[in-house]
Sequence to fold (94 residues):
Amino acid sequence: MIGDKIISRIHTVERMFEREIGLEDVRYVLQDGEAIENYVGDKPYPSAVMLAWCAERPLHVVMAYNKAEDETILITAYEPDAEEWDAEFRTRRS
Fold:
């Protein structure tokens, strides 16, 4: 679920910079990662948490998809916390 256009807000780019996550890594997660959480009812667009490993580093990218415009909207990107996620970073701990 990746559109022809990728839209990111200044806030998203600032957080990526702070977390040392490059656009290449985000594109990789979007193209080759797996959706580990889907929020089909989110408004105004359905969203998802995507996971992929970039080298030795797990990354989550939260994105929304605007089907009408065929665009992917980046919400945030981060390295998941091992205390909040299972060992494979696919499932949140209770």
Summary: Helices lie at 10-18, 23-32. The chain has a mean pLDDT of 94.
